[in-house]
Design brief:
Elements (H helix, E strand, L loop, with lengths): L8 H7 L5 H4 L6 H17 L5 E5 L5 H8 L3 E6 L2 H14 L3 H4 E5 L2 H8 L6 E6 L11 H10 E11 L5 H9 L3 H4 L8 E4 L2 E4 L5 H8 L3 E9 L9 H5 L4 H12 L11 E8 L1
């Protein structure tokens, strides 16, 4: 395969839940998931002309890759977790409707995919990464290398990542008398936890990507995802109050791109264009 087959601690953690991931994070289990995904796909429709060839970083079980295919795109989907890739392949095969022909799966980290991309002789129209797999990358330098090798000039890159500041998360955990959880994004050494499996991670915002990507990439959009809407882990609780999530979502949609607010939240959505 020509790609480093060692698995990182974060990939191992997601490997362990691959068979249950879709049940844990389905719209039925957590209605907030569908709301967040709809907002991300709206950005996809704004920034990627159809049809396009897209590279997805951190494809997980293939949910977003299938959504991209339904929108008329072709997808090269990568993930460092072997079990996630296996689950995504099985889901794609079960989906039918020609989806298998439109999605190519690659197992590998950002660095591993960057190291082997030039041999493909391919440039993609856009790069996409949803729900924070890039927070598992301890440096954004491999990402810049991958974008320089894979993304055509004028192509766009959409990233949904976890920033350091999420005011509602702090407030909600403080209300539960859980100060460690409330302040977890401010730790010097951030730690991710997936059902007891821990791994080192980093919180990233627009300034981090601006510095890492450099002058060759221009940021053209930034907006909050989860400023008035709660963090994903609180979604089921908020959903018990009829109409609450819809009301909070309507407020968020009005203010999520405002200066000062667009850099904070449970997630932030960033869009860059390659010069």
């Amino acid at each position: 395969m020509g790609m480093d087959q060692r698995i990182s601690a974060s990939a191992s953690a997601f490997d362990a839940i691959a068979s249950r991931y879709d049940d844990m994070f389905s719209a039925a289990a957590n209605p907030l998931i569908a709301m967040m995904r709809a907002r991300v796909m709206s950005a996809v429709d704004r920034h990627f002309a159809t049809p396009a060839t897209l590279l997805e970083i951190g494809c997980g079980t293939g949910e977003d890759a299938l959504s991209l295919v339904e929108r008329g795109h072709r997808v090269v989907a990568c993930d460092p977790s072997p079990a996630m890739i296996a689950t995504a392949r099985a889901k794609t095969a079960a989906a039918g409707r020609g989806a298998e022909a439109q999605i190519e799966f690659i197992r590998g980290s950002v660095e591993a995919v960057a190291d082997t991309w030039s041999a493909r002789g391919q440039a993609v129209d856009g790069v996409f990464s949803n729900f924070a797999p890039l927070n598992c990358e301890l440096s954004l330098a491999p990402l810049r290398l991958l974008l320089e090798r894979a993304l055509r000039r004028g192509g766009r890159f959409i990233a949904v990542v976890l920033p350091q500041i999420c005011p509602l998360e702090v407030a909600l955990f403080m209300a539960r008398a859980e100060p460690r959880a409330a302040l977890r994004r401010f730790r010097r050494a951030a730690v991710g936890d997936v059902e007891g499996q821990q791994f080192v991670m980093k919180y990233y915002g627009a300034p981090d990507f601006d510095r890492a990507l450099g002058a060759g990439f221009r940021r053209i959009e930034a907006r909050s995802l989860g400023l008035f809407l709660p963090p994903l882990s609180f979604g089921p609780s908020f959903a018990r109050v009829p109409g609450l999530l819809a009301a909070l979502g309507a407020i968020e949609d009005r203010v999520s791109a405002l200066p000062g607010l667009r850099r904070m939240g449970d997630h932030v959505l960033l869009v860059y264009e390659r010069a």
